Amino acid sequence: MYRFPRLYNLLLKLVHGKYLPIRYKEIARIIGKNKKVLDLGCGTCLLYKYLDTSCSYEGWDLNEHFIKNNKGINVKLKDAFDYNNYPKTDVIVISDLLHHITPRHEELIRNAQGRTKKLIILEPHVNFYTNNKIKWVYKLLDKMFGDDDGFNSFDNRSKWFKNKKEVYNFFMKFKPKMIKEIGLDYLVVL
Ligand SMILES: C[S@@+](CC[C@H](N)C(=O)[O-])C[C@H]1O[C@@H](n2cnc3c(N)ncnc32)[C@H](O)[C@@H]1O
Questions:
Q1: What is the DSSP code string of 21-58?
Q2: How far, in whole angstroms, is CA 33 from its chain's centroid?
Q3: Distance between CA atoms of residues 117 and 141, nearest Å
Q4: Residue stretches of the chain with pLDDT short of 70
Q5: Tens digits of per-residue pLDDT, 126-151?
Q6: For 136, phi and psi rounded to 5 degrees?
Q7: CATH number for region 5-189
């Protein structure tokens, strides 16, 4: 699914249903107007169309298939860990990226937070891959329809928190200005 932007968007719709647009509308509402936005791990830039037109947008992702299909949006083939080259921003968005980069998720939050005024995070409070008894089935599904973007191993990614409580407790460490549930995700503002 990470090779084909349309398939990625379709599967996301199937997984999140009515919550898919709600996620991005809510992020765009919190961002507001006239803001410089950096979207780390931007994927197919689903957030972009919901932003107020007065905002400027830059998306970073390592996936060439997504970057090539940019439809005139300002996207760059760049690593979210390239902290020293972040542009000046008002807001950094990390949407559905942290569970792809475990165990470096906390490192990314701390560095992004130190380089912007507002950090908005959206991450799942579910882990589809924790059942070790039939790990090979999960691994196969992960490769075909899941989170295997080719940049981090299945074993690393399946270390994402096991349940809602663990995800909540993790985010509470950062003393968020806001944390709320949207469908399968937590939306967090730092
Ligand atoms: C689940 S997608 C989320 C895309 C988008 N933010 C969204 O809300 O739909 C995760 C994205 O993170 C990208 N990614 C993974 N590791 C990355 C890294 N170190 N730097 C930049 N992007 C990365 C993947 O290529 C993939 O497009």
A1: HHHHHHHHHHH-SS-EEEEET-TTTTTGGGS-TTSEEE
A2: 21
A3: 38
A4: 128-134, 145
A5: 876 655 666 777 777 777 767 788 88
A6: -65, -35
A7: 3.40.50.150
Checking DSSP bridges between strand 118-124 and strand 185-189, what pairing results, if any?
A: antiparallel
List beta partners, residue 186: 123, 181
For 189, residues 6+ apart whose C-beta sits below 8 A from its C-beta are 30, 118, 119, 120, 121, 176, 177, 178, 179
List Cβ neighbours of 44 (8 Å cut-off, separation of 6 or more): 5, 8, 9, 66, 69
How many Å lie between the centroid of ligand 1 and the Cα of residue 94?
Answer: 9
Residues within a 6 A CB radius of ligand 1: 41-43, 46, 60-63, 66, 79-81, 95-97, 100-101, 149, 151
Query: pTM for the complete prediction?
Result: 0.93
List pLDDT tens digits, range 4-33. 889 889 989 998 999 999 999 999 999 999
Pocket test for ligand 1, best of 6, 47, 61, 76 (most atoms within 8 A of CB): 61
d(CA 66, CA 44): 6
